[in-house]
Amino acid sequence: MNGPVSFETHGEIGVIRVDNPPVNATSQAVRAGLIAAADAFAASDAKVAVIVAEGRTFIAGADITEFGKPPMEPHLPDVIHHIEALKKPVVCVIHGTALGGGFEVALGSHYRVMVKGAKIGLPEVNLGLIPGAGGTQRLPRLIGMIPACEIFTSSRQVGADECVKLGIADAVSTEAPFEAGMSFARKVLAEGLGVRRVSEMTVPAYAAADLEALKAKVARANKGHVCHLKGIDVAVEGTKLPFSEGMKMERAAFWELMQTPQRAAMIHAFFSERKVASLPELKGVSPRPLGHVGVIGGGTMGGGIAVACLLNGLKVTLIERDAEAVERAHTGIARMLADSVKRGKLGADARDALLAEKLVTTSDYPSLAAADLIIEAVFESMDVKKDVFTKLDAIARPGAILASNTSYLDVDEIAACTKRPQDVIGLHFFSPAHVMRLLEIVVAGKTAPDVVATGFALAKALKKVPVRAGVCDGFIGNRILKTYRTAADIMVLEGASPFQVDKALEEFGFAMGPYAVADLAGIDIGYLTRQRLAPTRKPGERFGEWGDVLYEMGRLGRKSGHGHYIYDETSPKGRPDPEVEEIIARERKAKGITPRAFSDAEIVERYMAAMINEGAKVVGEGIALRPLDVDVTKLMGYGFPRFRGGPMHYADHIGLAKVLGTIEDAHKAGDDIFAPAPLLQKLVAEGRSFDSLNKE
Ligand code: T1G
C-alpha cells in the first residue's frame, strides 16, 4: 500500500501504520488508507491488529486544513465504524497527543494502550465544534456521562495514568509505540481476547443533578459560545437512542456548527497563532545563544519574566538596586514558583533545584557579564531606562542582546544610548509575565535580524505567542487599546454610562468591559497615562477626565475597593457606584455636552469600529506585519473573545464597508481617532478583505 497508511503482518499480528507528518492528521488520504488497511487486515491471516503512528504523536485530529471545504469521503465516523466492526480485535497505541479524531479512532478500536507521557483529548470546542466522529457517543459509554462531558467541554488533555483510572486505556507502557502495541497484541492472543466494541456498551447511570451542575459550570466558563452545551446535549440525548441514531444526531450537530461564524473565527485563531511566528525575514536566520538570561528589576514584571524563564529551563541572573530589593525580588519569585507547585505545574523538588541552581539574585551588575540576553524591566521612564542601558552596554559581553520590556517607549531612542544598537530589541511581556502567552517583539530600526530571530526563539522557549511589532507609542496592543478606550470615553461623555458600556461589551464576549479593566489595572495607571499624553494632545481633542477626579478622591479601583465600581464583601466583583455618574454628569456640563441615549448595539459598533480602524492604521504603517498579527495580539493579550477570531477577522465577518461607514459617521464629530484608516478605505474601494492581506 502506498500513501500515508500501510499494512504489514508480523506472524499473527497485523500492523496498521499511519505516517502523515507533521501530526498524522486524518486527511482524506489517511481516512482512505485506514479503510484499505482494515480490509487488508480482515483478509489476512493475522488474528489481531495494531494501529500505530510514526513521528512525534499518534493522530492529532482531523485535518483542520480541510475545514470549510466540501467534505470528502470516506468520512471519519464511517472509517471508525469500519474499524470497530472488524471481526478480529484491534489494539490502538497512543503516543504523543491523540486529540479529536485521533482519540476517536482509538475509541473505535477494541483496546487502547498508551505510551508513558501520552495524552488524549477532545479539543474540538476550541475550534467552535464538538467531537464529530463518535466522541460524544462512545466516550460516555466507556467512562460515564459526567467525566466524558467534562473532558470534551474542557478540551483538557488527559494523561495516561488518569486514562487507565477512567477506563479509557487498558495499559500504560514504557516501551516505544510499536513495541508497546506488539506486546499488548501478544497479550490479546495469549488470553484469547476478542473484539470489544464501545458502541455496544451502555452509559453507566449518573445523577441528573451532577449533569445540571456541570452544564451550569460549562455555561459560566464559556459565555457566548454555542458548542460546549450543544455537545453535552448531543451526548445526553444521542446516547438514549440506538448507537447509529445517536451518531446521526452527533453528525447533524457537528455540521451545523461547522457552518457557524464561531467555527470560522476559531479556526482563524488557531492557524493565526502559528502563522504569526513565521516571518520571511527570519528564513535562514539562526538565533543567538539563549541559555542565560539577565533580568534588571525584580518587581511584578521582572519577577514574572524571571519565573517564565526558570520554568522553561533557562538560567536567570536578576539584578535589583540594593540588598533589600534583592531579597524582596527573591521572595516574590519563590512565591510564584510555590504557586506553580500548588497548582501541580511544578514538583517541589524541581522548584528547589531551580532556586538553588538556576537563579541568582544580586545587586552586582558585573554578574551579568556572561548573560546571553538581558531584559530590562524597570520603571517606565526613559531616563531610568537610558541609565540602565548605558550600564549594560559597558558590562554585557559582545553579542549579548539587550532588551527592554517597555510597554510603549521608543526602543530606537533606548538603542541610541548604547554602542550596540544592532543588539537592542523590545520584548514586551504582559502581566503576569509567567502566565500571559503574548510577547510583542519590538524591532527597532537597527535591530539585527539574528536578534529578532532570538526574540522569536525566546518566545518559543517560553511557550509564548510572539508578534512582531514596529516602534510607535504602544506598539500594536497598547496603541490600539488607547484608541478604543478613548472611543468608549467619548461615548460616555456623549451620554452612555460606563456601566452600560461595560455590560454591552461583556455581552459581546469580552471577559470584562473597559471600565472594569481600568479598575483592575488601577485608576492611577489611567491617570499617569493621561498625564503623559497631556503635552501631545491637540486642541479640542476629546477625552474623559473623570478618572482624574476618581484618582484625586483616592479611588484607585479594585486595589482600593473603589473605582468605577464598589468592591466589598457584598459585591466582591464590584457593583456600579452611582456617584461616578454624578461626576461624569458634572464633566459633561462643564464641557457643554448635552447627553444622549446610546443603544448597546451602537456602543459595540462604535467601539469595535475604533479598534478595527486603528488596527488598519497599525498594519498600514507597517507596525504590524499583517491583520492576523493584530488579531493574535488582541486575542492573546487583551481578552478579545476567541469565538470572534480577533478584531480584523470580525471586521471581515461584518463587512469592511459597514465598518468604514461607522468610522466616517463617528468622524463627523472631528475626533482624530475616527479619521478613516487609508488601508481600510483602500480595501473597501477594491472590495477586498483584511484576510486577503494575510495570504500575501
Ligand atoms: N490539522 C492540520 N494541521 C495541523 C493540525 C490538524 N489537526 N494540528 C496541527 N497541525 C499543524 C500546525 O498547523 C503546524 O503546522 C504543525 O501541525 C505543528 O503544529 C472529527 C473534527 C497536535 C498539540 O484541535 O493542538 O479532530 O505551522 O505548531 O506545538 O471530532 O498542533 O508546522 O505548518 O501546533 O507540537 C482536533 C490541533 C481537530 C489538534 C501539536 N485536533 N493541534 O502541537 O505543534 S478537529 C486539534 C494541536 C477534530 C473530530 C474533529 C497541536 C498539537 P506548521 P504545532 P505543537
Structure write-up:
This protein is an alpha/beta fold. It has 3 domains: 5-258, 2-enoyl-CoA Hydratase, Chain A, domain 1; 284-469, NAD(P)-binding Rossmann-like Domain (Rossmann fold, 3-Layer(aba) Sandwich); 477-694, Orthogonal Bundle (N-(1-d-carboxylethyl)-l-norvaline Dehydrogenase, domain 2), CATH 1.10.1040.50. It contains 29 helices and 19 strands. The strands form 4 sheets. Strands 12-11-10-13-14-15-16-17 form an 8-stranded mixed β-sheet. The chain has a 6-stranded mixed β-sheet with strand order 1-2-3-4-6-9, sandwiched between helices. The radius of gyration is 28 Å and the shape is globular. Residues 22-23, 25, 60-65, 76, 97, 99-101, 104, 123-124, 127, 129, 131-133, 135, 274 line the site of (2S,3S)-3-hydroxy-2-methylbutanoyl-COA.
Any key phrases for this structure?
alpha/beta, six-stranded mixed sheet, binds (2S,3S)-3-hydroxy-2-methylbutanoyl-COA, 696 residues, single chain, 3 domains, 2-enoyl-CoA Hydratase, Chain A, domain 1, Rossmann fold, N-(1-d-carboxylethyl)-l-norvaline Dehydrogenase, domain 2
SSE topology:
Elements: E1 5-10, E2 13-18, H1 28-43, E3 48-53, H2 76-84, E4 90-94, E5 97-99, H3 101-108, E6 111-115, E7 119-121, H4 135-143, H5 145-154, E8 158-159, H6 160-166, E9 171-173, H7 177-190, H8 208-221, H9 227-238, H10 243-258, H11 261-275, E10 292-296, H12 300-311, E11 315-319, H13 323-342, H14 348-358, E12 359-362, E13 373-376, H15 382-395, E14 401-404, H16 411-415, E15 424-429, E16 438-442, H17 449-461, E17 465-469, H18 477-494, H19 498-508, H20 514-521, H21 523-533, H22 546-552, E18 565-568, E19 571-576, H23 578-590, H24 600-620, H25 627-637, H26 647-654, H27 656-667, H28 678-686, H29 691-694
Parallel strand pairs: 2-3, 3-4, 4-6, 5-7, 6-9, 10-11, 10-13, 11-12, 13-14, 14-15, 16-17
Antiparallel strand pairs: 1-2, 7-8, 15-16, 18-19
Helix pairs in contact: 1-2, 2-3, 4-5, 5-8, 5-9, 9-10, 11-25, 12-13, 18-24, 19-24, 20-21, 21-22, 24-27
Bound molecules: (2S,3S)-3-hydroxy-2-methylbutanoyl-COA.
